[in-house]
Amino acid sequence: MIRRPLAIEANKAKNCPLCTIDLNKEKVFWEVPAFVIMRTKDLKGHRERIMIVYKAHRHEIPYEAYEAALDALIKIGKKVFKYAPKFVIMDSTFATINEHWHLVATDLDPKAVDFDQILKTKWIKVIDPNWD
Length: 132
Description:
18% of the residues lie in helices and 23% in strands. It contains 2 helices and 6 strands, in the order E-E-E-H-E-E-H-E. The chain has helices at residues 63-80, 115-120; strands spanning 28-31, 35-39, 49-54, 87-90, 102-107, 123-127. The protein is globular, with a radius of gyration of 14 Å. It has one domain: HIT family, subunit A (2-Layer Sandwich).
């Protein structure tokens, strides 16, 4: 099987954990040339936890790309988090990888390891997956 890296060589940072992800080994929910939505490496006690990652190694992305990323994460999140009454898209306040643009979406499970941290994090959006 051919290794399918997240970032193409020209847009990749050697020591970035997101740039070096092998997408063949990840649970990928959606992918286009600029973005990928996949399961996070650590579920932190959640049934599901997903992220959208900009494929090029960038700290910031253009506003139009940001809006498209939010729309895609909401659309995919409604399917992934169908089991939950609500899910949130979080700001990168406590992100462990700050140099590569990504957003995390998660359910609001109070038993999850990071629940207190989720409550301390700014939420970009709260979504009810069963509402259109």
